């Protein structure tokens, strides 16, 4: 069954590589149909991989090989909720270690330029704390981080 709403992600020419990486890295992810172009197009030839259907964490996606005209930006990101530090480290290290790039506050980019927020549940709990002083301490601790360190967030939340 074709989903009614699908996230479409533009790649230069390596949507299949990206989909394979996501499927190997994230649970509940898989590569589906691969569509080869029926004719030449501005940045490809007949027979090239044009579209790759895949899921990331259960979300239906399409990767389209459209050439270098359009780039990913931070205006779109996948926010991945993690259960603990080991899960956070594994996903962060997989993305950054596969040619990606660290950013701030739990954000990173994969080697295709797609933004990811690797967000521990503990961080979200801390910044939603009804004790606004505790939430602010946790938030301020996060502001100085690239990859989120749950122990530091929890210590900041508890306070001095």
Describe this structure in words.
This protein is α/β, with parallel strands linked by helices. It has 2 domains: 68 residues, Roll (2,3-Dihydroxybiphenyl 1,2-Dioxygenase, domain 1); 89 residues, 2,3-Dihydroxybiphenyl 1,2-Dioxygenase, domain 1. It contains 5 helices and 8 strands. The strands form 2 sheets. The protein has a 4-stranded mixed beta sheet. Strands 5-8-7-6 form a 4-stranded mixed beta sheet. A hairpin with a 2-residue loop joins strand 3 and strand 4. The mean pLDDT is 96.
Question: What order do the helices and strands come in, and which of them pair?
Answer:
Blueprint lengths: L6 E5 L3 H11 L4 E7 L12 E8 L2 E7 L11 E6 L2 H13 L3 E2 L4 E3 L5 E6 H7 L4 H12 L6 H9 L2
Parallel strand pairs: 1-4, 5-8
Antiparallel strand pairs: 2-3, 3-4, 6-7, 7-8
In brief, what are we looking at here?
This protein is α/β, with parallel strands linked by helices and 160 residues long. It has 5 helices and 8 strands; from the N terminus they run βαββββαβββααα. 32% of the residues lie in helices and 28% in strands.
What brief labels describe this structure?
32% helix; four-stranded mixed sheet; 2,3-Dihydroxybiphenyl 1,2-Dioxygenase, domain 1; 160 residues; single chain; 8 strands; 2 domains
Count of DSSP H/I helices: 5
| The named CATH superfamily of the largest domain | 2,3-Dihydroxybiphenyl 1,2-Dioxygenase, domain 1
* Radius of gyration from the alpha-carbon trace, in angstroms: 18 Å
Order of strands across the widest beta sheet? 1-4-3-2
Q: Report the biggest beta sheet as strand number plus sense, adding barrel if it closes.
A: 4 strands, mixed
Which series of helices and strands comes N to C?
EHEEEEHEEEHHH
Structural class: alpha/beta
**What would you call the shape?**
elongated
């Amino acid at each position: 069954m074709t989903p009614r709403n699908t996230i479409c992600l533009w790649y230069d020419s390596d949507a299949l590589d990206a989909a394979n990486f996501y499927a190997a890295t994230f649970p509940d992810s898989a590569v589906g149909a691969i569509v080869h172009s029926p004719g030449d197009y501005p940045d490809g030839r007949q027979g090239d991989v044009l579209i790759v259907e895949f899921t990331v964490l259960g979300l239906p996606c399409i990767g389209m090989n459209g050439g270098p005209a359009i780039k990913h930006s931070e205006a779109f990101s996948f926010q991945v909720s993690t259960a603990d530090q080991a899960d956070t480290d594994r996903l962060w290290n997989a993305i950054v270690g596969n040619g990606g790039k660290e950013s701030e506050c739990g954000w990173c980019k994969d080697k295709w330029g797609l933004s990811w927020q690797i967000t521990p549940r503990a961080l979200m709990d801390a910044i939603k704390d009804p004790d606004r002083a505790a939430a602010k301490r946790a938030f301020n601790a996060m502001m100085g981080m690239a990859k989120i360190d749950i122990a530091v967030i929890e210590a900041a939340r508890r306070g001095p």
